[in-house]
Amino acid sequence: MNAIVRGGWRDRILMAALTLVALAWMSPLLWVLGLSFKPNMFLQTRTDLIFSPPFTIANYFDIARVSHVFRWLANSAIVALCQTLGVLVLSSLAGYGFARTAFPGRKILFVIVMFGLAVPGQLTFIPLHRLFADWNLQNTYAGLVLPGVAAPFGVYLMARYFRAIPVELEEAAMLDNASRLKTFLLVILPQTLPAQATLGIFTFLSCWNDYLWPLVIGTKPEMYTLTRGLASTQTNFAQSEGLGFLMAQAMFAALPALTIYVFFQKYLVAVAVGKGR
């Protein structure tokens, strides 16, 4: 009985500690959210009273009045979804190839792919920009999507996950005269749903929040992504004259990403603890 009581107290203390950590982690987000509902004139004098009047939703209406904002939102959605789909397809095929097939130079090629994890993306900006400019892909969806489709981390994650799937599943399917492609699509691939969801979430969020590559490849306002477009509306005095509008922009840009994460976070947990396979 005493052990049960001690265990209960430990659980409560742990939960209280985790709650405090969560509140500390969320405090910047809550601060941004509170400032987004404050009048800009009020924020010129003080920014500490975020949960007391006055409040306003004018900052969010000001976003809607920006001429291209919904085009930028659509651009971000198109680019993020297409890039996520491309990463999932290519990473699954490459990961399965490295994990399940034997071909000459497989280990060396896998090491070369892993070297891609050590190369900062900024180092490839100049050659990529020149390449896409020569191909006339500036200010196009292809130019925004294609550089992010090559994902060494996705290949590594999927190869690791495929190796953890029992080989007997494939052997049983092939004994029933199923081809390798059919075995991959109908037997093996469904087993990797948690890894697919995790990779999809990371890819989508990374693409949605990307600013540097859209800044380089998209120069026309109608081809801006949301992060690039909202940044273009900020003046040199945004922090002093339009802080509420600036915070509303941040919340507007972050809301789709937060929604995606909330709905798919169970798959992140499943991969982290090794379940769902």
UniProtKB/TrEMBL annotation:
Alphabetized Gene3D superfamilies for the sequence: MetI-like
Main location: membrane
Membrane topology listed for this record: Multi-pass membrane protein
UniProt KW Cell inner membrane keyword: yes
InterPro entries: MetI-like, MetI-like_sf
Keywords, comma-separated and alphabetical: Cell inner membrane, Cell membrane, Membrane, Transmembrane, Transmembrane helix, Transport
Gene Ontology annotations for the cellular component aspect, listed alphabetically: plasma membrane
Segments traversing the membrane: 12-33, 72-96, 108-128, 140-162, 183-205, 243-264
Keyword Plastid: no
Residue ranges of domain ABC transmembrane type-1 in the record: 73-264
GO biological process, one term: transmembrane transport
Location in the cell: Cell inner membrane; Cell membrane
Highest taxon listed in the record's lineage: Bacteria
Complex formation: The complex is composed of two ATP-binding proteins (UgpC), two transmembrane proteins (UgpA and UgpE) and a solute-binding protein (UgpB).
Function per UniProt: Part of the ABC transporter complex UgpBAEC involved in sn-glycerol-3-phosphate (G3P) import. Probably responsible for the translocation of the substrate across the membrane.
Membership in a protein family: Belongs to the binding-protein-dependent transport system permease family.
Name by which UniProt lists this protein: sn-glycerol-3-phosphate transport system permease protein UgpE
Protein species of origin: Pseudoduganella rivuli
